[in-house]
Amino acid sequence: DGGVVFEDVHFGYGPEREILKGVSFVVPPGKSLAIVGPSGAGKSTISRLLFRFYDVSRGRVLIDGQDVRGVTQASLRAAIGIVPQDTVLFNDTIYYNVAYGRPGAPREEVEAAARLARIHDFVVSLPDGYDTRVGERGLKLSGGEKQRVAIARTILKGPPILLFDEATSALDTQTEREIQISLREVAENRTTLMIAHRLSTVVDADEILVLDKGRVVERGRHAALLAAG
Ligand code: ADP
Ligand code: ADP
């Protein structure tokens, strides 16, 4: 379960301007879809419709075959795990930050999630390990480390759908590349939506949509899209 469908979705924040002009896609359960496009194309709007921060003006958004208009915000939050661009960690321990979505989770599970997010080795290299405090009054983590903690948190929570909303866009190319490699394992057998500026960051997606001015202008696999320029 956990498929996502957009069916001829139209949407505008106000009546004067349509932001999405008939967007359709299917992410089958366990598959990944990347949405790339320039700033202002409508990518974040798609994630907001998925979470039902807004409702479509025309068309449908389905999760698990169910129209999201019949689903509560609480169920949507449980079904979709989001890793946003800028994660703000709590001024608390690394354990607390990873286990945030599942308080009291056993250490082994926290560590397994951190391994998958490629942050475990770093954490155990610290004198206080998972008990290290982070944030303003604790250890200052790099942008990449923070994103890895956020990814570990989402993995541990275990939602059927993962949404990476520009999750690596703020990082340098090298760090972004490393995190993308671990995301490939994370995304395996889970329904995954990745939103990104650059085509180069979503090489592993099963399908890629190129969005421009609220329309899908191209769709395909990475190599084919690169060849098309
Ligand atoms: P992207 O994520 O691709 O950069 P967005 O979905 O954030 O694009 O925005 C698409 C368009 O919608 C932009 O023109 C933006 O200015 C407009 N927009 C975004 N949020 C709002 C809002 N809350 N009210 C009005 N217009 C908005
Ligand atoms: P912006 O600040 O970019 O104009 P919003 O305030 O609408 O946009 O949302 C900020 C981001 O948080 C969006 O990209 C949205 O997808 C994301 N988001 C969606 N659901 C959640 C959630 N449950 N918890 C935290 N962030 C969420």
From TrEMBL:
Compartment list: Cell membrane
Domain ABC transporter residue range list: 4-229
Signal peptide residue numbers: none
The protein's name: Metal ABC transporter permease
Organism field: Telmatospirillum siberiense
